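Usage

Read records sequentially. Each one opens with the input sequence:
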Amino acid sequence: MPTPFEYLQSLNRLVHEPARLAILVALSACEKADFLFLLNITGLTKGNLSSHLSKLADAGLVEIEKTYEGKIPITYAKLTLEGKEALGEYWKSVDKVREGIRQLKPLRTT
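and closes with the structure output:
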């Protein structure tokens, strides 16, 4: 049986990165979100948000839609099925880490 620390090492690093995790969590709470909403909720800069969304899209976890409302360009992002599954697996792994740590016996120090 893997130790909690081995579970930590096996976490999906694409999902585990804090900015990408924030994006995925935000998108998991809605059908889709526009770029400005994600910008505000994550606190990232435009460049960082764009870069992280591109990485998530390249991995198939997020789908990007660029459209116009009138003459105003709008970028939407939504979680794909693969993204939902990856986020679910991530939370399961985190739960295994937490459970494993709870079961560790404290080391005696004398």
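Summary fields computed downstream for this record:
- Residues 81-103 form the longest helix (23 residues).
- The mean pLDDT is 91.
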